[in-house]
Amino acid sequence: MIMFNKQKINCTLSIIIVNFNNKELLLECLSSIKSKVNDIIYEIIVVDNASTDGSPEVLQEDHQDIVLISNNENRGFSAANNQGAARAAGDYLLFLNNDTKIIDGSFDRMIRVFSNQNIGMIGLGLINKDGTPQVQGGLFGKKFWKSKSMLYVDFVIGAAMVIPKQLFTEIGGFDENYKFFNEDIDICKKIKQGNYRIVFYPDVKIIHYGGSMNRYLSEFSIIEGYTGGLYFFKKHYGKVLLPIYKILVITDLLSRIIITTIKKIYDQEPERILQMKEAYYKTIRLVIKYS
């Protein structure tokens, strides 16, 4: 690990961005921060997970005002965010995906929400490129992401979440067993277990490119999504119920295999569909072995 711009500043907010081979979107993200966040003192910390697309070099050359932590290996999303948090000087941490673009909203007003009793985390308003609210899931049909005003929720997704640094440290940060996916749901659960509340705050609007519906998922995304879910279930609900959950997961994967088999007949990119199908089979084998 190599750190550039080691000098700490007094600031309210530390914006932590993990990057891996996503230079163009990262540069757009940084530009949006510098042009839109103007009502609060902040710092930007980029943790680069051994990118080979020239990301670290461009940051060192053109963005010397940020803190760059350059890893010599891909440590995963959770571990890299923990690295950034350990270096952060701000009282609050904003974990921001590198494929985001800040559109508008007052960060000062958002931070003041934490003055309300027992607020432990704030999720910001993610939108698609066309300005529509981005789907963030929803327990029992609660589509909180459609709300135009602040409300209390059970979880928010990790593309843009804010937490007091002290609380983040107290709960042990992100669980580094999650390499990618599910770490946001896990930390939300830890926050709720500590009797803190989670808020969805749509007044700060952020485009999340990666959250737009993607027709094709990579093998890595499929495997990490499902195996991370198994780890989450085992961690929070125990090994006794794990076999039941595994059956549900395998049933879901089999249904997806059937759907992809049908899609392959008429899809314009049958090879991509075939790759997804093979990834589902591979994931089933991993789920069966998981204990």
Question: What are the main properties of this structure?
Answer:
291 residues; alpha/beta; Spore Coat Polysaccharide Biosynthesis Protein SpsA, Chain A; 10-stranded mixed β-sheet; 9 helices; 41% helix; globular
What does this structure look like?
It is a single chain. 40% of the residues are buried. β3 (42-49), α2 (55-62) and β4 (67-71) form a beta-alpha-beta unit. The protein is globular, with a radius of gyration of 20 Å. Strands 1, 2, 3, 4, 5, 6, 7, 8, 9 and 10 form a ten-stranded mixed sheet that branches. The chain contains nine helices and ten strands. The longest helix has 25 residues, at 242-266. It has two domains: 2-211, Spore Coat Polysaccharide Biosynthesis Protein SpsA, Chain A; 219-289. It is α/β, with parallel strands linked by helices. α7 (219-237) packs antiparallel against α8, α7 packs parallel to α9 and α8 (242-266) packs antiparallel against α9 (270-289).
Brief characterization of the structure:
This protein has 291 residues and is an alpha/beta fold.
Most strands sheet:
10 strands, mixed
Mean pLDDT: 87
Under CATH, the homologous superfamily of the largest domain reads: Spore Coat Polysaccharide Biosynthesis Protein SpsA, Chain A
Which percent bin holds the helix content? 40-55%
Per the principal axes of the C-alpha atoms, what is the gross shape? Answer: globular
Under the CATH scheme, which class of the largest domain? Alpha Beta
- Structural class, judged by helices and strands? alpha/beta
How many domains? The number is 2
Relative strand content: 15-25%
Determine the number of helices (DSSP H or I, runs of at least 4 residues): 9
What is the N-to-C order of secondary-structure elements (H for helix, E for strand)? EEHEHEHEEHEEEHHEHHH
Per CATH, which architecture of the largest domain? Alpha-Beta Complex
Please name the CATH topology of the largest domain: Spore Coat Polysaccharide Biosynthesis Protein SpsA, Chain A
Rg over C-alpha atoms, rounded to the nearest angstrom: 20 Å
Low-confidence stretches: 212-216
| Span between termini | 33 Å
Please report the total strand number as a whole number.
Answer: 10
